[in-house]
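So, can you check?
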Amino acid sequence: MAKFNINLIDLDVNKLFEERSIDNIIQLERLLDSEIEKKRNALRSTVGDRYKDVLTASDAIKSMKTISQDIVDHIDKITSTCGNLLLAPSNVDLKSSFPIGKNKLDERTFVVQVRLAIFLNEQIWLALDQENNLDAAQYYSLAQYIHTGLGLSKKEFLDKIPYLEHIRNQKESLKNRIFHKITEKLESVETTAECYEDAYSS
């Protein structure tokens, strides 16, 4: 076969039968078939890899779309919850309660913020128990915002609820749990692409 070490592409088919014997031509044909099969397999492999890349990208886009929609849904849920918390203490005759003094309004706002802080801690716990690290991180971000607002409240309100410090400490403890869960998920060899996206989004 060494003597057939030629450029098959430049092979002159018209002169083939003039310059080579039948046996040589048969061997050349086998060599050509072998090269064609190699090229065909290489093409299949290339197309297959590209197709896998396309499928992976498509799955990633679908996953990101789902995650984005989940974020929107959770924001709607949180907004609805905040609205319910604001309405909850208003089971009195509004006409008889007017006018409401600024101090009374500030106190009501403070109470709602405390209730929301407790609620968000509970939601973080539930999300972590269900392995929903992205949800837990989102609830924590909102809780952080709520606690920032609480920190700006009047001292007379803060002194009325010493339990608030426990709520704040619990939030920080949950922050560490979220970080640990996300790190654990990223280091896991069984983590899927969707889980990686969820972890990085968190």
About this structure: The longest helix spans residues 22-87. Residues 8 and 58 are 40 Å apart (CA to CA). The chain is about 80% helix and 0% strand.
